[in-house]
Specification:
The chain is an alpha+beta fold. The protein has one domain (about 10-105): Nuclear Transport Factor 2, Chain: A (Roll), CATH 3.10.450. Helix content is about 25%, strand content about 45%. It contains three helices and six strands. It has helices at about 10-20, 20-25, 45-55; strands spanning about 30-35, 40-45, 60-70, 75-80, 85-95, 100-105. A six-stranded mixed sheet has the order 2-1-6-5-4-3. It is globular and about 35 Å long. It starts with 7 loop residues before the first helix and ends with a strand. The model has no long low-confidence stretch (mean pLDDT about 95).
């Protein structure tokens, strides 16, 4: 991880991915939180766990935050990703609510 400063819930999710800790990953989200990966939405603890298993932790992912900007409850990042599913850079948008992640969105790149 670089020296980019992130809100605690965002950092917790990044740390969980890099530690291959599915329980910590799920715990970083609110009960109704979701991951939206190019429009494919996985919601609630079961959905978040499923995404972690298929696209992140279960795929051996490592995430490096390259840049971040936070305004209010929204943090936008540029990150590097290495896994058996995807390798490269992407954008990410986090929304924090009540000290946890309400959402993590990876918008389609064009």
């Amino acid at each position: 991880m670089s020296d980019v400063s992130l809100p605690t819930p965002v950092q917790a999710m990044v740390d969980a991915i890099n530690a291959a800790d599915t329980e910590a990953f799920v715990a970083a989200f609110t009960p109704d939180g979701f991951v939206s990966d190019w429009g494919n939405v996985k919601a609630g603890p079961a959905g978040v766990r499923a995404w972690a298993g298929s696209d992140a932790i279960g795929a051996g992912a490592r995430m490096t935050v390259l840049s971040a900007e936070t305004s209010g409850d929204t943090t936008r990042i540029r990150f590097g990703w290495s896994s058996r599913v995807f390798n490269g850079e992407s954008d990410g948008i986090f929304v924090v609510r009540d000290g946890k992640l309400a959402s993590f969105t990876i918008p389609p790149s064009h």
